[in-house]
Write a structure and sequence with these properties.
Helices cover 23% and strands 23% of the residues. By secondary structure, the protein is α/β, with parallel strands linked by helices. The strands form 3 sheets. A 5-stranded mixed beta sheet has the order 3-4-5-6-7. It has a 4-stranded antiparallel beta sheet with strand order 8-9-11-10. Strands 1-2 form a two-stranded parallel sheet. One of its GO terms (biological process) is amino acid activation for nonribosomal peptide biosynthetic process. GO terms for molecular function: phosphopantetheine binding.
Length: 210
């Protein structure tokens, strides 16, 4: 994560973040490394604990400085906490799947006066590229993916890599330091998905999100 984002997540706190997903899941990168880099603890769900106990465990050990969840986690946690209205985190980051208005409401209910964010980003851009503050969306509308994080660029382009006008369908391209080098052992797919950035510095590339 960019340093400004890391600082915003931890906000000088010492309560760190919980870790309850498989290390194979890319979201764990920021859930685990952000607290450690910032000098805060990582609270690991004990081995053998069932996810049906997740909400209660979070309520007992929170509130955390920040917490990352998927919409599926929100559905799981909803109704599990035995202290309704208790904030589980000062900053709650939701990602990994499409966030609906229902999920946005669930997320806001878990942060009290804190912040709930919709985080978007494919694995190929190192997990996160865009964020949107939940609560700013229009009622009943789809939840936007927000603006690029510091150090990230995002363009909606046509087939000739030209920016499309507002309201016109295009493809999202993401650039910046987090863009991966490509797919190991798959040069053809790498050339297709990772393209030169016509708006960046020499050698910069964009990832075609599809």
């Amino acid at each position: 994560l960019p340093r400004p984002t890391l600082d915003a997540y931890l906000a000088g706190g010492t309560h760190g973040a919980p870790l309850f997903s498989s290390p194979a899941f890319d979201m764990v990168v920021s859930s685990m490394l952000t607290p450690l880099v910032g000098g805060a603890p990582v609270h690991v769900l004990p081995q053998g604990r069932d996810l049906s106990e997740l909400g209660g465990w979070l309520a007992v050990h929170g509130p955390f400085d920040f917490m990352e969840v998927t919409p599926g986690h929100l559905d799981l946690i909803a109704g599990q906490t035995d202290r309704p209205g208790t904030a589980l985190a000062r900053t709650l980051v939701v990602g990994g799947e499409t966030v609906t208005p229902r999920h946005a409401g669930q997320a806001r209910a878990l942060v009290g006066d804190g912040r709930a964010l919709n985080s978007y980003g494919p694995t190929e851009t190192t997990v996160a590229s865009n964020e949107f503050l939940l609560g700013a969306e229009e009622a009943g509308a789809s939840v936007p993916i927000g603006r690029p994080l510091p150090g990230v660029t995002a363009y909606v382009l046509d087939d000739l890599l030209r920016p499309v006008p507002r309201g016109v369908v295009g493809e999202l391209y993401v650039g910046g330091a987090g863009v991966a080098r490509g797919y190991l052992g798959r040069p053809g797919l790498t050339a297709e998905r990772f393209v030169p950035d016509p708006y960046g510095s020499p050698g910069a590339r964009l990832y075609r999100t599809g």
